[in-house]
Amino acid sequence: MVFESLLDRIRQSNNGTIPFEGTVLAFRAKLFKFFVEDKMMGSDLLFMLTYMAAIITANASRPEIFAYTGARREYVSTKYIHRADILVKRWGYSYVEALVNVAKKIENEMLFSMVNRYANAIESGVPDEDFLTRELDTIRNVYRSTYEQGLEMLKKWGDAYVSMLFSGSLVGIIIMVSIAIYAPENVQGTLSVSYLIIFSISVLGITTMYKAVPGDPKTHGLSQGSPEQNMIHRMERKVVPILAVIVLLLLLLGMNYGLILMLIGMLLFPLGVIGFIDDGNITLRDAEFPTFIRSVGAIQGGKGTTMAPALADIDKKSLKYLEPLVNGVYTKLNLGLSDKQSWQRFINDSGSYLIYKYLNIYRDSIQIGGKADKIGEIVSSSMLDQVLLREHRHTLSMGFIVLLVPMHAMMVGIFLFLFHILVTMSDAITAKMATLGETSAALTAGQGASIASAVSGSLFVFANFDAKVIGTYVVITITMLTIANIFAGKVVYGGDRSLIYFFASLLCATTGIIYIIAPIMIGIFFKIPTFEGV
Length: 534
Description:
Elements: H1 2-13, H2 21-55, H3 62-71, H4 78-91, H5 95-103, H6 109-124, H7 128-182, H8 187-212, H9 227-252, H10 257-303, H11 307-313, H12 323-334, H13 339-350, H14 353-368, H15 372-433, H16 437-445, H17 449-463, H18 467-493, H19 499-525
Helix pairs in contact: 2-7, 2-14, 2-15, 3-4, 4-5, 5-6, 6-7, 7-8, 7-15, 7-18, 8-18, 9-10, 10-11, 10-15, 10-19, 12-13, 14-15, 15-17, 15-18, 15-19, 16-17, 18-19
């Protein structure tokens, strides 16, 4: 309320406007289009066409098709159908004129093409049922092709990300060694170049991989989800704030950074494992749902029954992972509980985004009066396409994850081992130089002046190594690498946001272990030879 009143006062003092309000809104609209609308358009367009093809089985009229479809605002594509519906009902446009005018404002090529084809079909007198049935097949093929192309791009950019980030790390290592040798005056400026390189590579690679594949959420994101999702939500409200406070305090107290990273990994590990288990369960439920909904539709259409009797006749033994949920909703319906709430509980417990979307499409189409057997076939076919594409993505993403973890360990290990080697050399050389004063003076007075000069110059190379500054640089760099690889793993793998905990636990623990063992191993295996007799 205080913020709104402040905005009102600013508007009053600026003739009803806020400075830069138009620019901010335009920028926000571009961000929404880039990260949400373009990302989700492919899958939402498939949902929308599946819904339209399903309700047309109820012999819905064209005004009803536009009205019902435009009312489903959960799809980013339906707002354009809603605009066309408004132009027809409020401004007297024909459907052809409305679709053509709406298409002019559409920037997405897939939706632009679909809306124009619909306008041409109406103008040509093609029945809506024929057009929507064919258009659904077209959108399925287009979505499948786009998704597969995205997977190829994801694979190539995944390889490119690993290569570029490793190259950026090598540049950082070269900069660190160069500073140890030459000790330039503007050290921070030199180190900033390394930060910028690694940050730029990370942002470019992760953003490109994110945009490569069409949006395909795995969890429905409702307030109540599967048991695993509910457990994660309860735990993260306590674990994450407590972890943030503990980490901040340990950093202020100067605790070993490796131990802090291992603590992060251990505390996030339960959340990550539960999220990974939930991801696997959703994959199994999604794989069975097309068979389930096709069977229910066939029984309802064949016997003319409602969903409750149809559930009694399906073969639940073939639905190993959906059977508990099906039995639960069947029991509730037999007890006379609310149909809507019973199926909502089914959706909640499944935790699946696809089940949430497609079950609602099926039930809404049945309520409108659609033919259950045809609707079940339509919904099942659309969902099966997405399930198969997900399996392809899973195979590709697992290859990237298997490569990502050892690559991350290698990059962090090179930084830390080389840093501790330089520190060991610097300490040993600095200590030895303090004992060479008399020997150097004797050599300088005699014929060994050139030898003394050479020895002193060689030793002086590492004598001015600033371990504190470079140590901070190494910590910042490996932190940047860890954060970048956490998000890279999540973007490539997909799934719910809780998987960030899984990758954070895995990579933070890996970084922490290497941070702890690196100085120990260098102390054991790397010995500086003594300069006795010089």
